[in-house]
Specification:
52% helix; zinc; single chain; 6% strand; metalloprotease; five-stranded mixed sheet; alpha+beta; hydrolase; protease; 7 strands
């Protein structure tokens, strides 16, 4: 039987969606699945840049997070709605859940307060709460990302010691959501990449993914209780649920791009989650990683390749990193994305005048 996952995580660990989450209550975002919703800085090397080979993207090593971040020059989406950037499959499945009368209110009433309180106490007791006076650079990155995405009240941000690069979010009742990032993720990424991770998590909050995922799980678990064909129905629902979760991750990658406003930033962090490390960061090449994604498409285009690809991905909670990189590259060149940028740019110009 599938586990109930009221949590949302954006950078998953390698493995299937059925892998146990790091907390008793949760829904995560990760690498081969990026994890489900997922830093704290344990030190940080001095900012260090090296010349990269021609055609590659130079990636700076992450500095300590004790200094104020430079003001962001990104366009701010002052009237942005979740459906403005929601992936089509995510939009389709969310509409189906919204059509069920009373599901929203019942789910929040039953699940919100208990799970939120458990996770709140867990993080207060074992993590560092980020604020203007505690890791202020991370605080600035979060508040800037929230402002760009038109989120009025940013969630709390916690940094947690862990060797597994990850970030995750809890938001069920909607009263006090929070994001947790692991120290190893902070060490791995540049400031811009880390802000893109935070934007991805904010995307889950803006789209209410944690709430809708919980409802979908309830429906699936309920199907298991139906005698006879209940198991078959539940398995079908489970596959559809994983398909939707994967599309929700693509939605939040779009949120990351809306904040970064540079597709190479988002693709670079996906590449690092695949096979990056602080010592190798300046040798990684975004263009080569995109070519790797295209080679995966070519290798899986035959009937046998399609079958293997489907078998590899059908039980994953997150799309494969190479596919996420290709998807964000394509969306960055779409008219939909360009119209959003133009709309934000126009609104910002009007406000300045």
């Amino acid at each position: 039987m599938a586990a109930l996952l009221p949590y949302s995580s954006c950078f998953p660990r390698i493995g299937s969606a059925s892998s146990p989450p790091p907390y008793p209550i949760g829904f995560f975002y990760g690498v081969s699945d990026w994890s489900k919703f997922g830093g704290y800085v344990s030190g940080g090397a001095a900012l260090e840049k090296k010349k990269a080979p021609i055609g590659s993207q130079s990636v700076a090593r992450v500095p300590p997070v004790c200094r104020a971040a430079a003001p962001s020059s990104s366009n701010v989406f002052r009237d942005l709605d979740a459906d403005d950037f929601r992936h089509p499959l995510d939009k389709q499945n969310t509409l189906l859940l919204r059509a069920i009368p009373g599901l929203n209110e019942i789910g929040k009433a039953l699940l919100g307060s208990l799970s939120e309180q458990i996770m709140l106490l867990e993080n207060i007791g074992t993590s560092v709460l980020v604020s203007e006076n505690q890791l202020p650079e991370l605080y600035l990155l979060m508040t800037e990302a929230a402002s760009i995405l038109n989120i009025k009240s940013p969630p709390d941000l916690y940094v947690r010691q862990s060797p597994v690069p990850n970030a995750y979010t809890l938001a069920i009742s909607g009263k006090r959501p929070f994001v947790v990032v692991h120290t190893s993720l902070v060490e791995l990424l540049t400031r811009k990449e880390l802000q893109a991770v935070l934007a991805h998590e904010l995307g889950h909050l803006k789209c209410d993914h944690g709430v809708w995922l919980t409802f979908a799980n309830i429906l699936m678990l309920g199907a298991y209780t139906v005698p006879g064909i209940g198991g078959m129905i539940a398995q079908s629902l489970e596959e559809q649920l994983f398909r939707w979760i994967r599309s929700a991750e693509l939605t939040c990658d779009r949120a990351a791009l809306l904040v970064a406003q540079d597709p190479k930033v988002v693709i670079s962090l996906l590449m690092k989650l695949c096979g990056g490390s602080p010592s190798l960061a300046d040798q990684l090449n975004v263009d080569a990683f995109l070519e790797q994604a295209r080679s995966y498409d070519r290798a899986s285009s035959s009937p046998m390749g399609w079958y293997i690809r489907n078998a590899q991905t059908r039980q994953l909670s997150h799309p494969l990193p190479v596919l996420r990189a290709r998807e964000i590259d394509e969306w960055s060149r779409s008219q939909e994305y360009k119209k959003l940028l133009n709309r934000a740019n126009g609104a910002n110009i009007v406000k300045k005048v």
